[in-house]
Design a protein that fits this description.
Two copies of one chain form a homodimer.
Chain A (H helix, E strand, L loop, with lengths): L8 E5 L3 E4 L6 H7 L18 E6 L9 H6 L2 H5 L2 E3 L7 H9 L4 E5 L26 E7 L11 H16 L6 E2 L1 H11 L5 E7 L3 E7 L7 E7 L3 E8 L5 E8 L9 H10 L3 H24 L6 E8 L1 H7 L20 E4 L12 E4 L9 H10 L8 E6 L3 E6 L4 E6 L2 H4 L14 E7 L6 E5 L7 E2 L1 H13 L19 E3 L4 E6 L10 E4 H29 L7 E5 H6 L2 H6 L11 E5 L1 H11 L2 H12 L1 E2 L8 H8 L23
Parallel strand pairs in A: 1-5, 7-9, 10-13, 13-15, 16-25, 18-27, 19-21, 25-26
Antiparallel strand pairs in A: 1-2, 3-4, 3-5, 6-8, 8-9, 10-11, 11-12, 14-15, 16-17, 17-18, 19-20, 22-23, 23-24
C-alpha cells in the first residue's frame, strides 16, 4: 500500500481500512467522521477512558500522553503504546517536518470493546446428517451400599455397578477414574442415596460424577480458530443439537495480520508465543462463557472441546513455537491429532474436561482443511471435486472417493481487503455486492448492515472487477480500457488510474471510493494463484495416477466463499468453468468439521486415515508454476478455451 | 491422661511430653527449663519473632497477645491461635479461679522451625536385592533432519528414530507425547544438532526431552507418609542408588495426634481437608528440595514419586475426604493403586512427572502395609511368618508362600509415649533403653542424643516393664508387687503407685521420671492388643484353611520395631515365644517397599495381585476377641504354656 497525495494515512485494524488524516483531528474524530462507530461514554471528552486504541505503527508522530490518559491507562499499557482515541493526534511539528520527507504512515488497532459494530463472521454452513456417537457420555447408575460384612470401597462398588451395565454402554473393562472425580465420589455418592451420574470419556475414563440423574446435561464445544475470526458452537452431546453460537475477532490480529507476521512476532519477542497464546485462550474462554450464558448452561457441563485451525493457529493454540513452520523446509512440530486435558491448555470448561485437536495435513494445510474434508465428505464424491476454503489463506482440495490432493496458496488477503486501497474486511459499511450499468457506468451497490459505504470487501471487489469486465472498462489483461479514459467516473492520476465506485459526497470518508489499476492487479494475483494452484494440483494428480480427470464440481467454503457471487468468481476466472448448478457454497465447512468430530468419535479415526491418504502438493515447486500463474493472471485466462461458457469475452479486448 | 496434684499441665507436641507449669513463667521458660531446646535468636526477649508456637488447647487461660506478638504474627496467625513462646503465659487471675475448679490443661504444638532437635526418624532398613526396571527411563537418540523433499514434522521424525531403537528399549508402538514435551521439542531438537534425550514413562509416554545425552540424570523419589513422620528417598533410576534421604515430622500432627482426630478435623472444618492436604504436600515439597540440594540434583530431574502411607494418610495425600474410613462400615473411597500426574497433586517434581500410589489393603490396613509385604517378601517365606509394623497404628501380617492374612490394631500410641505419664516420642532426651539391678532396684539407662533425660519413649517403656518383671517389682497380672511397697524408689500416691526411674535432681524437668501402675496398664493394653490380634488372625487363618499352622518367624518393622529390645518385647508377651534367632528387625519396611516399587515396575503388578490375595481380618468382630484380649493382658500371657522359653516367670507372682 503506497500513500497517496503525500498525505498522512492511518490504517485501521482489524477492519483493514485505510483512512486519511486531517490536520489537528483526534483519532476519535477521524474514526467517527469516517463512519466507523466507536464506543465511548463521554463522547470524546477524555472523561470515560473507554476509547482505548493500540498504536501499532507511527507512535513517534503522536502527541505525548495527556493527563486524562495518565489517569485511565496503566503504566504498562502506556509502555505498550495504548492510547485513548479522543486524546491522541498527530503532532503538528511532526506533520510540518514530515511534509518534506516521507509522509507519516500510522496503524492503529481497535480492540473488541471499542469497535461499535461487530464483524460479519460466518458461523453457519451446510451440514450432512451424522450419527450421534460422542466421545463423552453421561450414564446414570444406582450403586450398592457398603456393609460391615462387605466393606467394599466406593470406587469398587461403582465398578461392579458398571460391570452390570457395561454391555449396554460400551464402557471398557479397564475404565479408570480421574483424581478429581475420585475426590468428589465419597460425598456425591451419599448425596442422593447412592444414585449418581457418571461422565465417561472415550469409554475409558470417568471424568465426573454428580448426584442424581444428570444424563441430559452433557455438552461439548466446537471451535473454529481462524487467523481473523473465532467461532464457538455449544452442542448438547445427549441430543446432538446446537444450543448456541458465539464468535469474536481473533485478538492476535493486534500482533500481526496474517500467519507469517504472527510467526515473526512469536519468534522475535521473548514472551511473544506466551502472549499470542494467552490472548487467544482468553478470547476462547470468553466465547465459552458467552455460549453458556445464552444457552443457560454451566461451563462445568462442557466436557470436551474440539478444535480446528490452520497450522499456525493450531501451534499457537497449543503454545507450540511455530518458528519452523515459517522457515524452509516448513515443518510443523507435529501433525497428528491430539487429545489433551482442557486444563493443560487453560481452556475453561469442566475441570476434568478434554480437548480434541484435529490433525494437520502439512506445514501450510492445517486442521481447518481437515475439517472441510470431514464435513464436505469430498472423499465420498464420485466425480472429481474441487473444494476451496478461502480465509486469510487459501487452501485447495481436489479429490473424490479414489484420490485426495491438497495444496495451499497465500492468495486470500486481497480478498479480505488487504492491499486494496479502499479495501476492508467484511465489517459494517463495506460494499459487498455491486453492479455497473454498461451504458453509463452507473454503479449500484449494497453494504453490510446497509450503512453508508466506507470501503469495499472481498465479494464487492470480485463483483466490481467482473462488472468492469462486462462493461469493457477492463481488458482481459487487466488494463483499464483506454477507450473510456476521460469518462467522468474514471480518474487518471500521476501513477494510477481509478474507477469511481462511490462519489465522495455519498460516503462519510469524504473522498471517492475507487478501484484502481493496482487494485485490479492485486485481484489478478489472487485469482491467478487460485486458478493456477488448482491446475497444478490437477496436473500433479493426473501425472501420478496416469489419468486425465477434470474437475466436475466445486465447493466454496469459508466466509468469503459463502458471500461471493459465484458466477462472478467464475467470470473473472478464479475457479474453473463448470456449470453453475455444480457450484456449491458450503459455508463454514471447517467449523462444521469440528462439530461433526465432536458429535461422532468415529470421524476422528477417519481423520487419521484421511491424513495418511491426502497427498500434499507444494504448488510453488511444481513444474510450470511460473507459466501457469502468468496465464491465469488474464481474465478469465490466457487460454479462452478453458472457459468456453463465458461468451461475453468474445467482445472484451485482450490488452 | 489425668492431671496431677491439681497443677496446670502443658502437653508439648509433637514430642508428646507433659510438663507442669510454674506460676508466672513464659512457655519459652517452661520449655528451656524442661530441657527442651527451642530455637530463638533473641533468647526470649520478644525481638526476633522466631519462637512461634500453636496453642491447641487452653487459649482462654493465656494472656492476650503482646505488642511484640502483634508485630511478629499475622492477623490470621493470631486468629488461628499462634503465639510467641516467650510472650505467652497463663494469666494469674485464671490460675486463681481455676484452683477451685478443674486445673487448666493446655496443649501447645512446636513447629519444625522452633524445635531445636530433630526427631529420631527411622529411614533405613533391610532391603532385598531387586532388579532395576523403573517406570521412567531416559534414552538418547539422534534424529534425522527435515528436508524440502521430506518435510516431516518434528514429532514424526522422532517416532521413526524410536522405531529403529524400539526393540532395544521396550518402548511401545503407540507411544504418545505429553503436551509439555511437544512444546519443548521444536527448540530442544535444534539446540544440539537433533541429538536429544527422551524421558519415557511406562514405555508409553514421552514426558520430557532435553538436548544432548542426559540419560544419567534420571531420578525418582520414594515417600513414606507416616501419621507422625515423613521420609523421602531420592533415588537415581539409572543406577538404582539412593542419593539422599530427608525426613520431617508430619505437620498434620498440629491438627490431631492420630488418624481418628485427623478424620474428625477434616470432617468438622469446612476447609479442614484442604488444610491437612496442603500442609502435608508443602512438607513433602520441602523434603524434595532438601534431598535435591544435598545430592546436587535438579527437582526437574525427578520424574516419578512413589507413595506409601496408611489409609488415612493416603486419602489426605490425595485430598480425598476420609470421613467414611472413620465411620462404620469403614470404607475408603478406593483401594486400588493409582498413577497420577505430579501436578494434579501439587507435588513439585518435574512438571510432567508422575506419582504412583501403592494400593490399600482395607479400611485400616493401608499402602504402608503393602509396602511391608513387598519389601519383606513375606509372600515367599516357606515358614509361617508374622510381620508387625508398629507405628502410630499397628498392623499385623501373617503369611507365607501359600497364605496371607492381615489385620489392624490401634495399639501403637502407648508405644509412642502417648497415655504414659512421662512418656514421649523418640526425641532428644527420651530414655530409650533401661536396666534395673534386681538387688537394689538401681536403674541404668541411655537417652536419645545422650541428653539429660526428660521422659521415656516406647522402647524404654518396654525395657522398664520387662526389667520390673524380672526384678519382681511387677506381678504377671501387672500389679505392683506389694512385697516391695515401702522401698525408697517406690512412691505411693492417693490413686497410683509409681516406680522412680530418674530422680528429680537428675532431670531438667525437676520432678521424678516414673512408671506408674496406670502406665503399666496402658502397656498391657497395647501388648495385649498385639498378641491377641496375632492369635485371632492365626486362628482365623487355620479355621479357613483347616490347618494347624504356627508362627515360626517374626519380622519387626517400623521405627519402634527397630529400636526395641526384641528379647524384652517377647518377655512381656507382646510377640509370640519363638527363638531369638527367628526374630528379625527389618527397619522402615514400608519405605523400602516404596523404594522397591520405584526401582522395579513389576512390583506394582505384584502389589495388585497381592491386594487380591491378602485376606483382611476385622479383629474386633472375631469370635473370642474379648477372651483372647483379656488373657493376653497378663505377662507374658494367662497361659504360660504359650511362652515355654521364659523360665524366669516361674519365680514371678501371678497377681
Amino acid at each position: 500500500m503506497n500513500s497517496n497525495n503525500n498525505q498522512i494515512t492511518v490504517d485501521i485494524e482489524p477492519i483493514s481500512r485505510r483512512l486519511f488524516y486531517t490536520e489537528d483531528e483526534t483519532f476519535y474524530e477521524l474514526l467517527i467522521n469516517s463512519g466507523i462507530r466507536v464506543r465511548s461514554l463521554c463522547g470524546g471528552k477524555g472523561t470515560c477512558g473507554k476509547c482505548k486504541i493500540l498504536v501499532q505503527e507511527g507512535m513517534n508522530f503522536l502527541n505525548p500522553p495527556t493527563k486524562s490518559e495518565m489517569q485511565y491507562l496503566t503504566q504498562s499499557e502506556i509502555r505498550e503504546n495504548w492510547r485513548l482515541a479522543c486524546q491522541s493526534r498527530v503532532k503538528k511539528t511532526k506533520i510540518q517536518s514530515a511534509k518534506t520527507h516521507q509522509p507519516p504512515q500510522l496503524r492503529i488497532f481497535l480492540p473488541k470493546d471499542i469497535l461499535g459494530e461487530d464483524f460479519k463472521i460466518l458461523t453457519s454452513g451446510k451440514s450432512k446428517k451424522i450419527n450421534l456417537n460422542p466421545n463423552v457420555k453421561k450414564i446414570f447408575v444406582e450403586i450398592n451400599k457398603p456393609t460391615l460384612e462387605s466393606p467394599v470401597p466406593d470406587i469398587e462398588r461403582i465398578f461392579s455397578s458398571l460391570s452390570s451395565t457395561r454391555d449396554n454402554t460400551g464402557i471398557s473393562r479397564d475404565v479408570s477414574f480421574e483424581i478429581d472425580t475420585i475426590r468428589k465420589i465419597p460425598l456425591v455418592l451419599r448425596e442422593d442415596q447412592h444414585r449418581i451420574s457418571l461422565t465417561v470419556y472415550n469409554n475409558k475414563k470417568l471424568i465426573d460424577c454428580e448426584a442424581g440423574n444428570k444424563t441430559e446435561d452433557c455438552f461439548g464445544i466446537a471451535f473454529d480458530i481462524g487467523t481473523t475470526t473465532l467461532v464457538g458452537y455449544l452442542i448438547n452431546l445427549h441430543n446432538g443439537k446446537i444450543y448456541s453460537i458465539a464468535s469474536a475477532l481473533n485478538p492476535q490480529t493486534a500482533y500481526g495480520e496474517d500467519v507469517i507476521s504472527r510467526i515473526t512476532y512469536a519468534k522475535d519477542n521473548p514472551a511473544g508465543l506466551e502472549k499470542l497464546n494467552s490472548i487467544l485462550i482468553e478470547s476462547l474462554n470468553s466465547i465459552i462463557k458467552e455460549t453458556c450464558t445464552s444457552a443457560n448452561v454451566s461451563v462445568n457441563q462442557i466436557y470436551e472441546a474440539v478444535i480446528v485451525g490452520n497450522s499456525v493457529m493450531h501451534h499457537l493454540f497449543l503454545k507450540i513455537n511455530p518458528t519452523y513452520i515459517g522457515l524452509s523446509p516448513y515443518v510443523p512440530a507435529l501433525k497428528s491429532d491430539l487429545n489433551l486435558k482442557a486444563k493443560d491448555v487453560n481452556l475453561e470448561i469442566s475441570r476434568s474436561g478434554y480437548v480434541y485437536v484435529l490433525p494437520l495435513i502439512a506445514g501450510f494445510v492445517g486442521a481447518d482443511t481437515m475439517g472441510v474434508v470431514i464435513s464436505s465428505e469430498i472423499d465420498k464424491e464420485l466425480e472429481l471435486t474441487l473444494a476451496i476454503d478461502v480465509g486469510t489463506n487459501g487452501e485447495l482440495i481436489i479429490g473424490n472417493k479414489d484420490v485426495l490432493f491438497t495444496g495451499s496458496c497465500a492468495a486470500g488477503s486481497a480478498l479480505e481487503g488487504a492491499h486494496i486501497q479502499h479495501g476492508m474486511r467484511a465489517a459494517a459499511g463495506a460494499i459487498d455486492t455491486l453492479k455497473i450499468n454498461p451504458s453509463d457506468f452507473g454503479v449500484e451497490y449494497t453494504t453490510i448492515n446497509s450503512k453508508k459505504p466506507i470501503g469495499i470487501c472481498g465479494s464487492g471487489i470480485i463483483d466490481t472487477v467482473a462488472e468492469m469486465l462486462k462493461a469493457k472498462l477492463l481488458t482481459r489483461s487487466g488494463n483499464f480500457n483506454k477507450e473510456f479514459i476521460g469518462n467522468a467516473r474514471i480518474v487518471k492520476e500521476e501513477k494510477d488510474i481509478k474507477f469511481i465506485l462511490v462519489n465522495k459526497d455519498d460516503t462519510p470518508i469524504k473522498r471517492h471510493i475507487t478501484i484502481s489499476q493496482s487494485d485490479v492487479r492485486e485481484l489478478q494475483m489472487a485469482k491467478g494463484a487460485f486458478f493456477s494452484g488448482t491446475r497444478l494440483i490437477l496436473n500433479h494428480l493426473n501425472r501420478l495416477n496416469n489419468s486425465d480427470l477434470e474437475i466436475k464440481q466445486i465447493l466454496l467454503a469459508g466466509a468469503f466463499g459463502n458471500y461471493i457471487n459465484k458466477k462472478n468468481a467464475k467470470f473473472i476466472g478464479m475457479i474453473p468453468d463448470i456449470p453453475d448448478e455444480k457450484l456449491f457454497q458450503i459455508g463454514n465447512a471447517a467449523g462444521i468439521g469440528a462439530q461433526n468430530c465432536l458429535l461422532n468419535v468415529d470421524l476422528r479415526k477417519k481423520a487419521r486415515k484421511l491424513q495418511e491418504k491426502i497427498q500434499y502438493v507444494e504448488i510453488a515447486v511444481e513444474k510450470d508454476f511460473q507459466k501457469e500463474f502468468a496465464s491465469a493472471m488474464y481474465f478469465p485466462h490466457l487460454n479462452l478455451n478453458l472457459f468456453p461458457s463465458l461468451k461475453e469475452y468474445a467482445h472484451i479486448p485482450k490488452r
